[in-house]
Fold this protein.
Amino acid sequence: MDLNLILTRAYITSHTSSATKIFEGLVKAEQEALLNMLPPAVSAQLMVICDPVFTVDLISALPAEKAAQILDGFPINTATLILRKTEQLNQAKIIERLPQPKGEDVKHLMIYPADCAGALMDPRVLTFPDDISVQEAKIRLAKKAGHIIYYIYVLDRAQRLKGFLNIRDLFLAGKNEMISSIRMDCPWVLRPFQRIGQILNSPGWREVHALPVVDEQFLFLGAIGYRTLREIELKDKAQKNEHSFKDVSTALGELYWFGVSGLLRGFSLGPDKSK
């Protein structure tokens, strides 16, 4: 029996938060080696409170079978969140290998109508856990800068939205300050099933350039940026113009048919002999 494995499992189970921070600080090869050594249930306990962007990278690097086994130990909403952020090819392979009924439940949650916030959001937006330092956040930022949509969103270890911060505030803060102390509250959020009209009319656009999308438990799902908002507005305007054109065409067609049918009726009746 491997005593190192026994001790590692015991430490993860008893001190999950501390173990997660150590795990996040390992190089990727060490992380993958540890996950391959641990039982999937213990790996899930370790990873479920990791930063989701970090988790997505690791899950994507694992064989689909191993990834599915680990995600089976996640709560359904968290597993769906991670899968939504993975590339579609990996996503499909992992979902196929998820044990039932979780596989079917995930498939159901993955589907959002095309005209709602869940389908329009970017699920790979950069996030930070609220219990790391500014110095650690800057290191993570250097690795993941391509996933920023105006702001960095701050989550607790249950992946619930706690607030947001901008790059300027991050670089002005002291390196030993905690992210939780410099974040700003996020009073404006979108829900995944809100339709285009509700998205466009959100009062949050008057104050910020991106809005987070959260579920009923406030689990962070992604964000919609101002550029996407403008695309939605233009598409919505084009659709309204198209509908207006069709309405006018229909009305003109009806008027035309009314005139023609009246003319034909006149022909069918013959000349008016009352005159």
Notes: The two ends are 115 Å apart (CA to CA).
